[in-house]
Amino acid sequence: MSKIETVDLNVYYRNGSVHGLKNVHMKIDANKITALIGPSGCGKTTFLRALNRMNELKGARTTGKVLIDGRNIYDPKEDVIQLRKKVGMVFQQPNPFPMSIYDNIAYGPRIHGQKNRHMDSVVEESLKKAALWDEVADRLDENALGFSGGQQQRLCIARALAVNPEIILLDEPCSALDPISTARIEELLQELKREYTIVIVTHNMQQAARVSDYTAFFYMGELLECGKTSRIFERPDDKRTEDYITGRYG
Amino acid sequence: MRIETEEKLVTAGLSATALISVIVLFIVVLYILLNGIGAINPEFLLEAPYRFEYGGIFPQIIGSLCLIGVCMLFAIPLGLASAIYLAEYAPDNRITSSVRFFVECLAGVPSIVIGLFGLAFLVYYLGIGVSMLSGGLALGFMILPWTVRASEEAIKTVPQAYREASLALGVTKWKTIRHVVLKSAYPGIITGVLLGMGKAIGETAVVLLTAGSGLESFLPRSLRDPVASLPVYVYMLATQGHTPDALSRAFGASLVLIAIFLAISVVALLLRNRYVKKMGRGR
Amino acid sequence: MKVRKEYLDALEKLKKDTLKMGELSQIAAKNAIDALFNHDKALASKLIEENSVIDRIEFDIENQCMRLLALQQPMAGDLRLIGTCLKIITDFDRISDLAGDIAEIVLQIADEPYAKPLIDVPRISEITQGMLTDCLEAFATQKIEKLQDFSERDDMVDGLFGQIRRELVAIMIENPRTITSASHLIFIALHQERTADHACNVASRIVYMVTGKRKKLG
Fold this sequence. Notes:
The complex is a heterotrimer. Chain B has helices at residues 2-36, 42-46, 58-89, 94-108, 111-125, 132-157, 160-168, 173-201, 205-210, 230-240, 246-278, and strands at 49-50, 54-55. By secondary structure, chain B is mostly helical. Chain B folds into two domains: 1-39; 42-282, MetI-like (MetI-like fold, Orthogonal Bundle). In chain C, helix 1 (5-37) runs parallel beside helix 3 (76-109), helix 1 packs antiparallel against helix 4 and helix 3 (76-109) packs antiparallel against helix 6. Classes of the chains: A alpha/beta, B mainly alpha, C mainly alpha. Chains in contact: A-B, A-C.
């Protein structure tokens, strides 16, 4: 059973006037990195946000099913809060809270009831998993906003890890970062996939090629092609995929 | 060459106007200081007025503080709650815009009208009588638009990214507001509160009609008691004072009023700045 | 506005230049056999000179490929094209070298009658020329139907080579004084057989370029 499976997924927003995602059927394997690529406005971010029901915040209407571990997360009986603990998200612009590093990471666990006496180890473990511990261990009480973009983004990853998700969604996480920070985060993702399932939206084709195991190409709200990254970038089936990958699109 | 001189002229002109604003402020404060400092002495500050032109203004000081207290107790929670509703929960439709519009209109109501409303509604209709409660509530009505507006602006300034990050961690909307949005918005909210307080502390018409004649020589013992207040006392002295130093006493009371306001502002701003710094520290 | 105009133009140039190199090596192979057939030492010398031109073109194409890889991050079909060009220029280079080797032999033996009349050598040349023409056409048009029977054609070349060798060996046994000139002819036939093998390599590479799948031809 795939970790994530979408069945007939459709997303409408602006009161149904925009059909953002059309009949998407896709399977995402556990402990792999799946990249979502496609031109602007093709629906890849909408798809990503459908996986943790963040589209609802913009008033979108979703039909079809999104199964995570076999359970449809859009079932009215399902708890959105639990879902978002299980499925974490990292955004395009690093967005740490205007608090200390410690408080940023402790934020999620504290709200979910984590006791304060074990908090130190939770914070340390999360920062270590995000490859940030060595750099900030002695600066945990400094305001997060004073750190570099790359560090802030890793902090956001650590913050997401602190609530023990199983799946991590990343929406163009490196687009605001310099090449070295980007490389570190890509390296980090390779480590993280051992424990987590990772889905990443990226505009950067080379990043998708470097980092992911599977690649899905979205175009005008539809999933055109999905497969092993090595195959997609060497010989895609669909001409539109080939045009996009080789830069002929546009 | 023309562009350079234009730049220089504009810079000079703008600096001049800024300077004028500062100078005006200084003149006013200095004038009050010079005219009022003569009346300031321990008796003045700590005793009750005697036949309204003699003695001290202690009850007036306490009265003003009490009125501000009641006013804030009413206006801050209500203003903040309204602001949270408008900024975070209200749907983006005509009804919401109308609500905002009405709140803004309230800001345009002349203070004497609010005072009259307070008199008719709070004092007579509800029967609370001329009292600290009526005065405080009426003042609260008056400054409500400022607390609502400033709080709403402060909340809106909090980047949407924070909310998204919090929600994506599985935190509910209300907890997000409490722990992230409000915490970030506090400095702006405090500024709004100070603005409102500044208006309220010097408000004469409203207080005159709802809180007391200003000449009370006793301290209030309960909310239903009438209270004295500094602005009304100044008004009384200035218009009905006979003694030679009535005017200087009026200036003295004004000075005390300004001093109280400045003191509260400074304390509030210091607390705000310390809070802002603290947001970056602490486990 | 065409996107990536510079890149697309560079790809077109690469295709054109590779095609040109292929044509030049095909001509060299033909000229070598013509020179042999007509005892034409002048043609043979000219061929040997022109080989250095082909070598320079190979370097240039290789540079073009490396630059495209380094600077343009080509993917999918473009990547396969560049990889294919890099490999088939080696084969073209070998084909022209083999033609040069034949030309060298021609310079040595053209002044005398040959050990036997040339029947099978021209036949092999015909088949090989056909293979090269089909390769170049497939490269230009991306249509690979004509490449499907290369294995059979290569087998025919191998067969003809075997025949030539047997005949010449028989002649050498019968008349030992023909050994020198006969062995020259055997080498020429061997070079032709190698040329056909290289044509098969090129065909395999072009099939990969077009379909993305690897198929050994020949």
